[in-house]
Every structure is written in structure tokens, then in C-alpha cells.
Specification:
Helix content is 23%, strand content 30%. It contains five helices and ten strands; from the N terminus they run βαββαβββαβββααβ.
Length: 247
């Protein structure tokens, strides 16, 4: 008898081509999880993630669900996965859940954090997880600009996929920008994010902080919905999915 299981997964995305399984590409998070679970159950399984992180993006709290027919306990399944998964993927928790739980469709919000390093030296031990930005941006200017980006808007101008057929309207209810020593953290919370959206928002805010743009330009960028007018796409390595919200 199959049961539905909910998983909490963390991963270092440096070596991977994103979350989503791809034909002829072994190095994806979903693909690795499905491969190990298929061997464990001796049948093909599908792991459903709360969303798709891009190549090079990390996660501390990705949620997924999978249906399994196994006599193993939840702890045994978790330990089996962590034994056979590569060292840069860790299943933090796995529990039986309701039959109707769907990691993607039931998700109500996500929290992402982007981190830049703005110090004088090399961020030696954090270099895989931060964007090195030696032209130190003004935090107050970025905070001012971020206020224009909050709310429910069409974020087509901040998306990597201009031909997206689905709605590009999203709600971003919080953008916190905090400087701690030589690091600046951008924490975003919203009901969902378009492809590269957080990275483009961050790149645009950095340009404001460096005096290349004015904070009030954000309103025009939202209205014109033209990707070519927004800022650069900040590198993937600085982005981490922190949490997925459910009711």
C-alpha cells in the first residue's frame, strides 16, 4: 500500500543543474532523490517539489512529497536516503502526510535569501554561497527602492522568461535588507516567484545602491514590464531557498 510522504530537503546547489529532473542530465536534485528512492522500493517513483530552484541555487528548506510502498519507518527511509545521496544533499525530515498533500499546489508562500559580500578581502569559506560585490552599495537607498517593489504586481519585467504563458502577477509582501559586517542579506517573502525573479530584483537593487539607478525607477520598471530595462541577474550562488509556507 502506498503512503504519501512529506520531505524537508537541504542542498548545496553548486554542482547541480537545478531542482527539476531533466532528460540526459543526472545532476539534478529531483533526479538524485528519485534515483535513490526507486532503488529502495524497486519501482519508479516521482518526487514533487514545492518549486524549481535554478542551477547553482541552494536550499535549506525545500519541501517535497512522494508516494512510496514500503515497510520501512520514516526514520529508516530518511537514513537510507542520506546514506546513498551525495554529500551535498540532505533529507532533514520525512513524515507520512495526508493523501491530498501536494508540495507544489498546497504551497502558500516562499522565503528566499540572497547574500552579497562587500568586504575588502576574499570571502574564502563563503565564496560558494555569496556574490562578491566590492563596490559597496548603500543599504538605505536599496531599502527605499524595495518599498516600490512590494505588493501585488505584474513582475514580467523581472522575469527571465518573457514568453511565459502563465500569469506573471505575484505578491511580494516583504523585502528585508540587512547589513551584518561585510555581508548584506536580502530576504524576500512572497506567494511565489518567477524564473530568476529574486536574482533580477537583487541585481536591480544593487544598482540602486551603487548609484546607477534612482529608487523611484522601480515603479516605472514594474509598469513597463520590459526585462531589458531592469538590472543585471545576480549570480545563482548567492541565493538560498529558506522556507516554504503551508496552511
Amino acid at each position: 500500500m502506498q503512503n504519501n510522504y512529506r520531505m524537508l530537503v537541504a542542498y548545496d546547489g553548486t554542482r547541480f543543474y537545478g531542482w527539476a529532473a531533466q532528460p540526459d542530465q543526472e545532476m539534478t536534485i529531483q533526479g538524485k532523490l528519485e534515483s535513490v528512492l526507486s532503488k529502495m522500493t524497486d519501482e519508479e517513483v516521482e518526487v514533487i517539489g514545492a518549486g524549481r530552484t535554478d542551477a547553482g541555487v541552494h536550499a535549506r528548506g525545500m519541501v517535497a512529497n512522494v508516494r512510496l510502498d514500503t515497510a520501512m519507518t520514516e526514520v529508516q527511509i530518511r537514513d537510507y536516503l542520506n546514506h546513498y545521496l551525495p554529500d551535498d544533499i540532505c533529507v532533514l525530515e520525512i513524515k507520512k502526510c495526508g493523501e491530498r498533500f501536494h508540495a507544489r499546489y498546497n504551497a502558500r508562500g516562499k522565503t528566499y535569501r540572497y547574500t552579497i559580500y562587500a568586504g575588502p578581502l576574499k570571502p574564502l569559506f563563503q565564496r560558494k554561497y555569496v556574490y562578491e560585490c566590492f563596490d559597496v552599495p548603500d543599504v538605505e537607498r536599496m531599502r527605499e527602492a524595495a518599498q516600490y517593489l512590494l505588493g501585488t504586481h505584474d513582475y514580467a519585467g523581472f522575469s527571465h522568461n518573457p514568453r511565459m504563458k502563465k500569469s506573471t502577477v505575484r505578491t511580494v509582501d516583504s523585502i528585508e535588507i540587512e547589513k551584518k559586517g561585510d555581508y548584506i542579506h536580502f530576504t524576500y517573502h512572497g506567494d511565489g516567484f518567477l524564473q530568476y525573479m529574486v536574482r533580477i530584483l537583487t541585481g536591480t537593487l544593487i544598482e540602486v545602491g551603487q548609484g546607477k539607478r534612482e529608487p523611484e525607477e522601480m515603479k516605472e520598471l514594474l509598469e513597463k514590464k520590459d526585462r531589458s530595462l531592469a538590472g543585471f541577474t545576480a549570480p545563482a550562488k548567492g541565493l538560498t531557498l529558506l522556507k516554504v509556507d503551508y496552511m
